[in-house]
Design a protein that fits this description.
The protein has helices spanning 25-38, 66-76, 87-96, 105-108, 111-120, 138-150, 177-186, 196-200, 203-215, 242-250, 262-302, 310-327, 331-359; strands at residues 15-18, 43-45, 80-84, 100-103, 128-131, 156-160, 163-164, 173-174, 192-194, 220-224. It has 369 residues and is of the alpha/beta class. The structure holds phosphoenolpyruvate and manganese (II) ion.
Amino acid sequence: MKALPWKSKPGQPLVVAGPCSAESESQVVETALALAASGRVVAFRAGVWKPRSRPGSFEGIGISALPWLVAAREASGLPVMTEVANAQHVEACLKAGLDALWIGARTTVNPFYVQEIAEALRGVNIPVWVKNPIHSDLGLWIGALERLDAVGIGSVAAVHRGFYADRPEPFRNEPKWELSFALRSRVPDVPIVCDPSHIAGKRSLVEQVARTALDLQLDGLMVESHTNPDKALSDAAQQLTPDALNALLEGLDVRRGTPEDAEALRVLSELRSTLDGLDSELVHLLQARMDLVAAIGHLKAKHGMTVFQLDRFRHIFQARGEEAAALGVHPSLIDELFQVVHKYSVQKQIEVRHQAPLWGDAALPAAKQ
Ligand code: PEP
Ligand code: MN
């Protein structure tokens, strides 16, 4: 995996922190000093240009806040980063001498903007982090990383900040952790940092999200911190004071992928081999189920029946849901699983229907042993 631009102390997660927005020079410098004093923060973040969904709210100080970030670095020793959304932002940040940049969620969605930013960075070696796009489109996220790679940015990282939620409860942005697994699997070289502040949306949930991110082997955290969160000009509900952030970080530990204890490793591989056996049985069961589905499909085709049957559809979900409840299996696991099973079963019977006149009764698949 590519290295992140900064290193944490052994046993501690890598943490970048700072206010959502730079509001004044004293706020920026004081926050950076307090965060540096904790010894747990490796870089300082502050937004200078703030993309807001609706006009009229605080849209950031703009270019004149860049020297405040430089002053914060001089005072605290922490490298500083901010969000860029176009070529002018990039040029201003490079001129001011910032250490790293990030592309925000509302910019990652648009390949034109990302390409413009990438072009402005051609030949410049500065770390750039890419937040996930607002909606769960992995292609846009990976595409932005590729555009930066193509202009020679050697140090990129992905920032997982959650995805637009229709109902912003309990989290402001849905974590959809499975997308971080998919990203990891598609681009294993790219470090993934979690932004628990924008996922949580409220102070009380930041710790839980940060802990989950580390349990899921994410490589670091970007957390919002403000000296007076209730008075923050943006994202007031989710920011933590530097002291609260420090207390939260004290309680976190970096998890490892493999246990050091040999006995634990032995038990783990035994349990995994049993699990593999069960998974293999599941695949065989699904294969047998599909054979039956095909046989039923032939019957329906021959007797002029529709493939979809509402009563049957309802029965599958009701009966399996009741079994799941009785066995203490999460109802959504069974519901989602049978949605997929049913979808492929319908597809199979549609295929059967269109081939039925050719196959006739003789082609009914025999049950396999
Ligand atoms: C931010 O980091 O303050 C920000 C605007 O984040 P996002 O792009 O994730 O909404
Ligand atoms: Mn914010």
